[in-house]
Write the structure tokens for this entry.
Amino acid sequence: MKIVAAEVIVTSPDRNFVTLKITTEDGIVGLGDGTLNGRELSVASYLADHVVPLLLGRDAHQIEDTWQFLYRSAYWRRGPVTMTAIAAVDVALWDIKAKAAGMPLYQLLGGASRTGVMAYGHASGRDTEELFDSVRHHLEEGFRSIRVQTSVPGIDAVYGVPATRSAGRAHHYEPAQRAPLPAEEDWDTGAYLRHVPTVFEAVRGEFGADLPLLHDAHHRLTPIQAARLGRDLEPYDLFWLEDCTPAENQDALRLVRQHTTTPLAIGEVLNTVWDYQTLVREQLIDYVRSSVTHTGGVTALRRLLDFAAQYQVKSGIHGPTDISPVGFAAGLHLDLAIHNFGIQEYMPHGALTNEVFRQTFTFGDGYLHPGTAPGLGVELDEEAAGRFPYQPAYLPFNRLKDGTVHDW
Ligand code: CS2
Ligand code: MG
């Protein structure tokens, strides 16, 4: 089944997305997500300039050989741009293979291991009242697991908390801001460490002990600060504490693990199994956060999660709005099939995005399901996509009070 066309489609309905569309001689179309928040054009160029010419004439059924060819023939290995580009190809080829088989992708991954995929939503607030309102909103929306992020006294803009509450998307936080340059935000670790335990004390008091609660520290703490936060949050029984400390230094998690039993999730910025070797083998984390889109696709993330399964580490696939509906769907199929599923992040896309990407997954009573349409279950409306040209948009960066750049 020869590949006869491969096109890179950049569109920006509610935010920027990069999609690879592969067409076979039989007319079967596969879609892959190449979206990398703030670096979309880098992946678009990597695909259009360096990958598409290699795909034409290849057999679309040869997913493994194509993956190995793209990974090894580039010479330069790993990294978010390369692995996101490889992922776009990989997901498109799995979409094609499943469509050719007349099956939803999860059937080709071993079939369903569960009836549904437990999701968590993003509650946030600039104060306790707003936060409680957001938790209630997400419970009414059908979520049964909730991530909690709040403002911090003395800090102007904090990750995960919308500065304004636009109608209809009042509870939505879009991390990348449309602007020609990244915005500067401020940070104060001491204020944050003093504040967060009080937030979870209040949330547990209001919503009880059973509601699964998650929190994202977003890479900002040193290992000993992360250890302190994990310990201070133990009374509130979190489902997980995410990105508690930057994990390029995987050994740092040993120190955190020595001090706390709060479950740890890491990896949305990691992009190969090598980034996880110590973390998984020494069980320094409990959940793998990588997405299909940023980790080399279904082929690679499945391998990583199978490695993690040997050490009782589970999946926690990244699912913010900067994973496109194509990449989100690919993650859902993997979620349904693997045994060591943990939880799936679900940040609903906006109405304009849903105009461009027609999705068939379902969500209800806390559970997602990818649906039973052949392939991924996502179609791209190219006419609609053409109405939303790329707009520069960047994630913010942090500076401390003394001006030092800090992890955002
Ligand atoms: C966050 C993301 O969803 C999460 O856990 O860490 O919103 C992250 O900030 C964005 O995906 C970055 O593009
Ligand atoms: Mg995160």
Summary: Residues 3-104 form a domain with the Enolase-like; domain 1 fold (CATH 3.30.390.10). The radius of gyration is 20 Å. Residues 80-101 form the longest helix (22 residues).
